[in-house]
């Protein structure tokens, strides 16, 4: 019984000591929070993080230095030497007379001789336009005048195919005029120069008209 009582007194004394220790720890913590001691302990354990913002300084382009000034040297004027030389001038009188007249005078060419040219055209026995008048044009009452260009030799024969220089506006009449000009080969009056027949080209009109 005495041993049991001793054990309980020891147990209660330990509980009392633990309770008192816990109370003291809480009191210390409360005091530290009240006085800022805990804040100092936290700063000592983990110091605050400082952030420094560094602004990048842009380097400005420094202009190149100006070119060195060009110093022009003043021109040095050298006075001319005072030297005078007198040279005697000999004057000679010539009595000779030079004949510059060209004795070989070229006469101008004679003027070109005028040529008596007579143009050719349809001659004796030349076909009549009535023989080549298109039947369809006569039936429709078509009339017209066609200008023909043809080349002939000195005997009045056609040397090239006749062509239409100015049409009548009707294709049938123009074709008939070309046929007539071909059929007249050998019946053209040739062009003459001083009465001599020569080859030439000429334009003439062929008229198709109802009677």
Could you characterize what this model shows?
The protein is α+β, with helices and mostly antiparallel strands. Among the domains are: 14-45, no CATH class; 119-208, 2-Layer Sandwich (TolA/TonB C-terminal domain), CATH 3.30.2420.10. Helix content is 29%, strand content 16%. The chain contains 4 helices and 8 strands; from the N terminus they run H-H-E-E-H-E-E-H-E-E-E-E. Strands 1-6-7 form a 3-stranded antiparallel beta sheet, with no helix packed on it. A 3-stranded antiparallel beta sheet has the order 4-3-8, with helices on one face. A two-stranded antiparallel ribbon has the order 2-5. The model has no long low-confidence stretch (mean pLDDT 78).
Distance between the termini: 183 Å
Unreliable stretches, pLDDT < 50, 5 or more residues?
none
Say what oligomer this is: single chain
Number of strands: 8
CATH superfamily of the domain at 119-208: TonB
CATH architecture of the domain at 119-208: 2-Layer Sandwich
Here the CATH topology of the domain at 119-208 equals: TolA/TonB C-terminal domain
Proportion of strand residues: 15-25%
Order of strands in the sheet with the most strands? 1-6-7
The succession of helices and strands, N to C, reads HHEEHEEHEEEE
What would the principal axes of the Cα set say about the shape? elongated
The biggest sheet amounts to:
3 strands, antiparallel
**Mean of residue pLDDT?**
78
**Helix/strand/pairing category:** alpha+beta
């Amino acid at each position: 019984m005495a041993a049991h009582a001793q054990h309980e007194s020891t147990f209660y004394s330990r509980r009392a000591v633990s309770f008192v220790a816990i109370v003291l720890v809480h009191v210390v913590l409360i005091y530290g929070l009240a006085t800022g001691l805990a804040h100092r302990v936290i700063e000592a354990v983990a110091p605050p993080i400082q952030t420094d913002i560094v602004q990048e300084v842009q380097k400005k382009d420094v202009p190149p230095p100006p070119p060195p000034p060009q110093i022009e040297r003043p021109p040095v004027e050298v006075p001319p030497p005072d030297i005078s030389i007198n040279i005697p001038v000999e004057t000679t009188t010539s009595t000779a007379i030079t004949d510059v007249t060209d004795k070989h005078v070229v006469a101008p060419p004679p003027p070109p001789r005028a040529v008596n040219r007579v143009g050719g055209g349809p001659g004796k026995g030349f076909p009549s336009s009535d023989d080549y008048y298109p039947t369809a044009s006569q039936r429709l009452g078509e009339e017209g005048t066609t200008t023909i260009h043809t080349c002939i030799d000195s005997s009045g024969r056609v040397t090239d195919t006749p062509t239409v220089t100015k049409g009548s506006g009707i294709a049938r009449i123009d074709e008939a005029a070309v046929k007539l000009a071909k059929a007249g080969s050998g019946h053209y009056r040739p062009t003459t120069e001083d009465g001599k027949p020569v080859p030439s080209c000429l334009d003439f009109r062929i008229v198709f008209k109802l009677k």
